[in-house]
């Protein structure tokens, strides 16, 4: 027993020493990083411009171009080097609206809370409302020839629940423990789509395109009390952003208003609506751009530490938490690093490269375009890498943030066990900021997947959930007011430290084995 | 000790017997009432017409007239007698809108979430936005001559909090115990208005009326995530509903949008807004109407049990919880009583009289008009009773409901201790429906105060709070979807039983002492 105990003690000691010995933490740098990141944060100032002034930032829209110019100028003014745009595409056409209103004219007048789906064309008119209660192709036939010039309702009534539980949450011990104990992730099985349902949906949308109703309305699939979740218009085939594609005007209505309209139809009460959407298709060359900016390295300057977030957003608010928050934190991390380098005189060994991606909302398109240019050859028409380019070997890590405004509570390893002791050591100094959970688990849906797919260590941080999925993610309420400045400052501080520590260590970060030509994890949201 | 114990036991027994003996509960009638009220409820059907079809019901508006006609017809169809309108007034002019939209045109385009305040006149135009940072009359002078054709912001930035606590609540033991233990209420002291602030506000509004800005914007004083609280327009002197009064167009903007506009001004970023409000003043005779309907009594038919709720609402939703809920419950209680009388053959001894009031939102005007016609002479230009009319003696009680969609958890006695044992006996059979708390306390702000002020026992029920004050009361989200059918059915059932028991007992309900010419409790909301 005693010998065993001794052995155990030795092992523990060895373990800690190993971490301490191998994984240096530069406390002096961290002190300066904290000063600029926590005490002199500019996060809310950056976020304010990015959202209130340069929001929303729909990919392909003129406002995204303005936001891009603003960000480039900011980064140059701060002292970032090699600030430039890298194009990717073709994306398809852009879209912006210059007027939108919807009104109900019968039984009484009321302004309808609704939003156009992105890429809906201009439309103006008044019409009756028809509820298409159809779930088979036979059902569809009944409506043939009857939809022209009408407003079409496609959704059933959704019951609204009051807010009996808080919308906004922070992690607690239980939720963090779940992440800490997450097993090595296994690839998710592909969804088994219901082909019958898919064929029905295609038939439905073909019919819509033939019949030319004035507008198709659905209700926000979640949200209530004035919060409406909206994304892009759909088509029977192809994508609504495809050049010259004819798109049926589509709108998402606040659930309370959608339900009111549908209930009145079911009562036999006539409902009339008026819509006026003025929208233009933009960006005829169909090419989009990521923003790239660097802090040059020194002795290992050919090796690169990347950090970034997607800069684009949906269109009904200002893209504050999705993903003004992530873009703000990454720009602020760059600013903190510039200030820290200036103050400390310590220059990064590897080059630090900030990337603000676009086209993320349509399927990680900007980061995938970047990967195509820099890291891998892909099978034609896919994002399945077939061979790796030399640059792939030079990227030590990519750090991403895209889960709202909540502060960092730790990091997801994406199944890369070998980085666990390194990240634990780097998180240790931020224990007082509540960031100390390391999860073997994956998190999906955003641009770190692009890196993971080509064998570059790509990570997202564990964030406080806040009201992200309940209220702001892809909603008309994704506005500046739902950002938390303290949380953004904390995240920028920790990420700046992670980036600098990744740049300063002797080795690049350990990689997972990468099996070439293996299908990538599916991206998009 | 033993004798004392015996005495105590006797007293307790006497007490219970007294209640049981004096205060009959008709269980057979209650069984039938429950069948019609709980198992065969029509509450949601009534509420649906009252809100989705005939909402909103702003006093003076044509839609209120339509709603009134619908309610009259329903009540007649069900078999209510003496269904008629009783006019009160003059109220002032009515108002309705036939188009409203607001857009932001710079720095980018976005549709603004906003609502006109009721009685705002038509206005159409595009203009710059000015923040009036003024708190003294000297501050005002700086803006003189600079406001014409502009949009004026009057409010500061309001910080938005996420929903960390539930919005909707039901009572728990603790909150009910607080009500059960409430002391006999004492009159509230009159608010000590800050006369300086008042004089500043008057000067501010006079300046607005002189300068003729395009519109005055404030932010919703509470609410967020798309919920906007809006009521009526104000003036420097007089009321915006006064005939021929010139009103400056006024709008309430969702806090996130208001803050965005103001933050951009503070950043030096130009903001341009466009507004188009088409509104008409209606109701040139300025007279309004309460809806009255009766179920005739038998041997005591000259005595009356009244029950009612206000039927009018504000204008940005459909007046579902304020006070479609109360009006629905009272109409449904009438329907339950008609069915119960038909099925049981038991006719009420006293006459049952339903009243649906209007003008409540402007200061209990409809019920006060009714009191003026039936119950008291008031001092000129006031609602201070100076002498009582004979009818006042004939009203046994008035039951009111106006605190949203929540079910009944008990009743407020309004300081009338003598009714406590009676109400306790009547609530006892509804213990399984969670309605058993009797509070000596007051509840204010609505039409039972009118009765209390003229010495007629007037009561409101204790209701579940639900999301009433957090989300729906005077907001754009006061829609049908925020009603709870089960709660409305429970309330109608219990109130039907209370009304019937009040009609059947030998005596009228005991009254509090009434001191004539005592100023009435202040009403309005």
Provide a descriptive summary of the structure in words.
Chains A, B: One of its GO terms (molecular function) is metal ion binding. Chains A, B: It is found in: Endoplasmic reticulum; Golgi apparatus; Lysosome; Secreted. Chains A, B: One of its GO terms (biological process) is proteolysis. Chains A, B: Homodimer. The monomeric form is inactive while the homodimer is active. Chains A, B: Keywords: Carboxypeptidase, Endoplasmic reticulum, Glycoprotein, Golgi apparatus, Hydrolase, Lysosome, Metal-binding, Metalloprotease, Protease, Secreted, Signal, Zinc, Zymogen. The structure is a homodimer of 525-residue chains. By secondary structure, chain A is of the alpha/beta class. Chain A folds into 2 domains: 26-92 and 285-504, Aminopeptidase, CATH 3.40.630.10; 94-164 and 189-282, 3-Layer(bba) Sandwich (Glucose Oxidase, domain 1), CATH 3.50.30.30. Chain A is 34% helix and 21% strand. Chain A is built from 14 helices and 18 strands. Chain A has helices spanning 2-22, 27-39, 43-53, 62-78, 137-141, 173-180, 195-211, 255-267, 320-344, 365-374, 420-427, 448-453, 468-472, 485-504; strands at residues 81-88, 94-106, 110-111, 114-116, 123-131, 151-153, 215-219, 250-253, 272-282, 288-295, 300-310, 350-357, 376-378, 385-388, 395-400, 408-412, 437-439, 458-463. Chain A has an 8-stranded mixed beta sheet with strand order 1-10-12-11-15-18-16-17, sandwiched between helices. Chain A has an 8-stranded mixed beta sheet with strand order 3-2-9-5-6-7-8-4, covered by helices on one side. The first copy, chain A, has a two-stranded antiparallel sheet with strand order 13-14. In chain A, strand 16, helix 11 and strand 17 (437-439) form a beta-alpha-beta unit. In chain A, helix 2 (27-39) packs across helix 9 and helix 9 (320-344) packs across helix 14. The longest helix of chain A is centred in the middle third of the chain and has 25 residues, at 320-344. Mean pLDDT of chain A is 92; it is low at 1-20 and 517-525. At the A-B interface, helix 3, strand 2 and helix 8 of A face helix 3, strand 2 and helix 8 of B.
């Amino acid at each position: 027993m005693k010998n065993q105990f001794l052995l155990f003690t030795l092992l523990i000691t060895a373990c800690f020493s190993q971490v301490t010995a191998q994984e240096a933490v530069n406390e002096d740098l961290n002190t300066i990083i904290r000063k600029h990141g926590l005490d002199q944060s500019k996060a809310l100032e950056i976020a304010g411009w990015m959202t209130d002034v340069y929001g929303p930032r729909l990919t392909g829209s003129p406002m995204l171009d303005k936001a891009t110019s603003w960000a480039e100028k900011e980064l140059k003014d701060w002292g970032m080097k090699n600030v430039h745009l890298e194009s990717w595409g073709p994306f398809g056409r852009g879209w912006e609206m210059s007027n939108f209103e919807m009104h109900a004219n019968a039984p009484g007048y009321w302004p309808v809370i609704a939003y156009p789906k992105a890429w809906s064309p201009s439309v103006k008119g008044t019409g009756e409302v028809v509820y298409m209660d159809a779930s088979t192709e036979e059902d569809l036939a009944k409506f043939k020839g009857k939809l022209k010039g009408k407003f079409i309702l496609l959704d059933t009534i959704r019951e609204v629940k009051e807010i009996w539980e808080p919308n906004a949450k922070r992690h607690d011990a239980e939720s963090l423990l779940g992440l800490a104990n997450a097993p090595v992730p296994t690839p998710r099985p592909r969804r088994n789509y219901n082909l019958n349902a898919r064929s029905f949906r295609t038939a439905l949308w073909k019919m819509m395109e033939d019949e030319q109703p004035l507008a198709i309305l659905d209700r926000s699939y979640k949200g209530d009390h004035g919060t409406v979740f909206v994304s892009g218009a759909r088509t029977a085939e192809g994508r609504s952003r495809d050049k010259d594609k004819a798109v049926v005007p589509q709108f998402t209505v606040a659930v309370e208003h959608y339900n009111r309209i549908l209930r009145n139809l079911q009562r036999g009460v006539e409902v009339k609506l008026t819509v006026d959407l003025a929208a233009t298709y933009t960006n005829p060359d169909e090419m989009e751009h990521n923003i790239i900016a660097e802090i040059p390295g020194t002795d290992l300057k050919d090796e690169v530490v990347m950090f970034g977030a997607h800069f684009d957003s949906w269109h009904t608010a200002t893209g504050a938490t999705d993903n003004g928050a992530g873009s703000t934190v990454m720009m602020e991390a760059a600013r903190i690093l510039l200030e820290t380098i200036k103050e400390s005189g310590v220059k990064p060994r590897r080059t630090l490269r900030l990337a603000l991606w676009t086209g993320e909302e349509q399927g990680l398109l900007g980061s995938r375009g970047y990967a195509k240019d820099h890291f891998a050859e892909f099978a034609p028409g896919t994002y399945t890498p077939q061979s790796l380019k030399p640059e792939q070997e030079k990227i030590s890590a990519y750090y991403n943030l895209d889960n709202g405004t909540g502060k960092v509570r730790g990091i997801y390893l994406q199944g890369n066990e070998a980085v666990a002791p390194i990240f634990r050591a780097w998180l240790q100094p931020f224990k007082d900021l509540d960031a100390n959970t390391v999860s073997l688990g994956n998190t999906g849906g955003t641009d770190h997947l692009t890196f993971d797919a080509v064998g570059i260590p790509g990570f997202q941080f564990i964030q406080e959930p806040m009201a992200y999925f309940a209220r702001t993610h892809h909603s008309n309420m994704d506005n500046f007011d739902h950002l938390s400045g303290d949380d953004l400052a904390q995240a920028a501080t920790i990420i700046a430290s992670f980036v600098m520590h990744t740049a300063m260590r002797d080795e690049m970060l350990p990689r997972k084995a990468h099996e070439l030509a293996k299908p990538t994890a599916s991206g998009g949201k």
